[in-house]
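Newbie here. two chains, one complex. Structure please?
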Amino acid sequence: MFDFDYTFHWITVWNVFPEMLSAAMVTIEVAVTSMIVGLFFAVFLSLGKDSSNELFRTPSIIWIEIARNTPALFQIYMAYFGLGAFGIHLSPYLAVMIALIFNNAGYLAETLRGGFASIPRTQLASSRSLGMTAFQAYRHIILPQVFKVVYHPMTNQMIWSILMTSLGTLVGMLELTGKTDQLQSLSFRTFEFYLVAAVMYFVIAKGTLLLAKLLAYKIFKGDA
Amino acid sequence: MNIVKKLAFLAVSVLAFGATSASADKLDKILSKGKIRCGVVLDFPPMGYRDAKNNPAGFDVEYCKDLAKALGVKLELKSMSFAQRLPALNAGKVDVVIGSTSDTLQRAKSAGFTMPYFVFKLQAMVKKDSGIKEFKDLKGKKVTAALSTTPETEFLKNSKANGWSASNYFSSKKESDTHLALLQGKADAIITTDTTIVELLKLPKYKDYKAGPFVPGFDDFVSIIVKRTEYGMINYMNLFIHQQVRSGRYKELNKMFYGNSPVRKLTVDGIYY
């Protein structure tokens, strides 16, 4: 029979809620930073994968394939304990950051590649024939159009990035999940702490989606 | 009239049902089912670990077996992590947890604690040539302990009291991750229980390491835990723990898992439990 006899003690959570909030800030900080830096690398990776130059193509393909076809958890372990085996000791924070940049870059590269593929090749040629440099052509003609195509898939990756930070606790990083784990162990109020953390993740993710929608409305003037 | 009869019948059956279910506590249920589900943590040798044949072994596992024997029921062992102990109890996955649970007043608001069944000292493990002799030598050193454990809590408490920078401490997810961090040189010292250090130092890969200073002023008494409301179980297990010592079984298990080191006293001077 279903017997639920548990009395919730929410006060235990509220007493240390500021600590959870600052841990949530760490979560957002890592997710956003790894997304921005990841995007930077993704531009080069996506161009690299389609490049005819072996020197660019091979490393790009290796990066993208590993990032997309191995678990993020494995990538975090490699950055922490894997590099540690070679005497490179990153803090949990830095290890998670680097692993997530690596992961985000791999996924975003494929998203961007799809975006680039959706722009007819002839546009680049036409831009160049109008006297633009390659950089100008990308900056003014290609990238703005690609941006529109990849915007929504990128929002998804952002949410994914936020949720992936929770894996950081597995190398001892005190982001929202890790901090929650630490706090609940002091009082054993496990249900309360994890429920609050879950709600916080939900709010962060939903808030991000809402923000992305508002931004899209502003940037694309409602036609995206 | 018919309706009144029905209502009366309903009322009586609710009362009767309520009465029986209220009086059948966990102890009754364990006895009537003929089985106890005992939670143990198996990455904490020699309290809990897996032997060469991958079977659960250790002090806590023996205590589970003894408890089942005392109750005259079958034993079902359930392996869990430290973090899962309380949720497992509250979700009804296990009946008791014998898993070196430190008996803090804060935690006793959430779980039912027996009298202590074992006691640890919290201690640092360091490299032989690290020059770390006293606890204060850990200032400025990279230190790690397992996340959400008493060694972590107590080290941070001392570190804060001494005004040391928090940035030199980092958490590890699991006890075994702290060992790896020490071996890789990520950490200059790990904080764990004295018993764990004795076990680790038996392994050849720790030949350059030694037991370091103790975390001052703290005896880590640990209890068997059940749901907070299970007084019948707590009462039974208090007697069980007492009898384990009286019968010599406690001493026997100390010898089995800790060799010739002195048998740990479960008393504090000046007060009854």
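Moderator note: Chain B has two domains: 26-120+220-258, 121-218. Chain B touches chain A at residues 82-83, 86-87, 90, 92, 104, 106-107, 109-111, 144, 147-149, 152-153, 170-173, 177, 180-181, 184-186, 229 (CB under 8 Å). Thread marked as resolved.
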